[in-house]
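#structure-requests
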Amino acid sequence: MRYVRYAFWGALGIILISVSLANRAIVDLKLMPDAVAELLGFNPSIGLPLFVVVLGGVASGLIIGFIWEWIREHKHRRAAGGQAREVRKLSREVNKLKKQKNEGKDEVLAILDDAS
């Protein structure tokens, strides 16, 4: 299974490198439309290779998606944490009740009673 994973990452690397080499042309990346830039009085633009723009868009989309899912799953993580606290509390209570039940008994009998 490890070799399949290495083959996948190797193929993905080769594909990304070939796409990057094929799209080395410089493109102007404008941060706002021309009409808005004229209204504000400045026109920010930067020249980048096309593969940087494409791969940067994919990377930023992945990051935004991960953050969105992390925020969306917050209620589930909070509920799981509450249930884990409840389980710990109930486990401590059961142990305390077992100790009270076995108080004054022989230690060996108390251990056998706890095992069953």
